[in-house]
Amino acid sequence: MTRRPNPIARLPCAIFTISPGRPVSFGAWPFITDLRSGSFTGSSGEQALIGAAAVQMGNFYGLPTSVGAGMTDAKLPDAQYGLVKALTFSLAAHAGANRVCEFGGMLGSRS
């Protein structure tokens, strides 16, 4: 997370220099990787927390924020699917996200 403030500081400066008054949105989509398989874990608690932290960083700099939430490792739309989506969406919303993506959801692979 120590590398985020530098690009955040440069991005609005570059956009405002090229096109003054153009709106800017901070769309950080951080992902956590499962160390055993190398795949991303869209429904882990760490994923929800790092997404909320990214939203709070964007809010700190006064930028509209967008974050991916609602991805799940569930293989079918069942109770796990609903619970994970509800928790990740609510955490992103409570963190102050202006836009939450993946509302339709993303299921885990069946392999």
Distance between the termini: 32 Å
Biggest sheet, open or closed, and with what strands and sense?
2 strands, parallel
Estimate the global geometry from the Cα principal axes: elongated
The helix content is: 40-55%
Kindly provide the radius of gyration, computed on alpha-carbon positions and rounded to a whole number of angstroms.
16 Å
Runs in which pLDDT lies below 50 for 5 or more consecutive residues are none
Q: Can you count the beta strands? A: 2
Q: Classify the beta-strand content into a percent band.
A: 5-15%
SSE ordering = HHEHE
Global structural class = mainly alpha
Largest sheet: spatial strand order: 1-2
The DSSP helix count reads 3
- On the 0 to 100 scale, the average pLDDT is 78
Describe this entry's structure for a reader.
By secondary structure, the chain is mainly alpha-helical. It has helices at 5-18, 45-60, 79-95; strands at 66-68, 99-101. It has a two-stranded parallel ribbon. Strand 1, helix 3 and strand 2 form a beta-alpha-beta unit. Helix 2 (45-60) packs parallel to helix 3. The mean pLDDT is 78.
How is this fold's topology laid out?
Blueprint: H1 5-18, H2 45-60, E1 66-68, H3 79-95, E2 99-101
Parallel strand pairs: 1-2
Helix pairs in contact: 2-3
List keywords for this structure.
111 residues; 3 helices
Please sum up the structure shown.
This protein is mostly helical and 111 residues long. The chain is built from three helices and two strands; from the N terminus they run ααβαβ.
